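Quick illustration, no need to memorize.
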Amino acid sequence: MSSHGEKARFIDACTTQLMRLYSASKAGKNVDADKYRVQGFMRAGELMGLLTKEEGKALIADLHIEVFGETIDARADRKRKLNALKESDPDAYLEIPAIERR
């Protein structure tokens, strides 16, 4: 298999793993172990020259938007604000529909 073919196959494998990870996370499952596994897989691809760090970051960012509909930073900021609201005003937090608090 050519180097280009190996790279494409590796990126497809990364995409599959990230989509599973993000989908499970969106469903509310604990994905810590899977997250570290995918990170290790992608790091191995970097070391083997199948993926650059920039390509990996772009893939992560693109798939995150595809699954969650927002950037990683925007989602983290939204979650921080929700947690702060939960601490400061639990009633106001609970008035937000549960689907929006994910």
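The chain has five helices and no strands.
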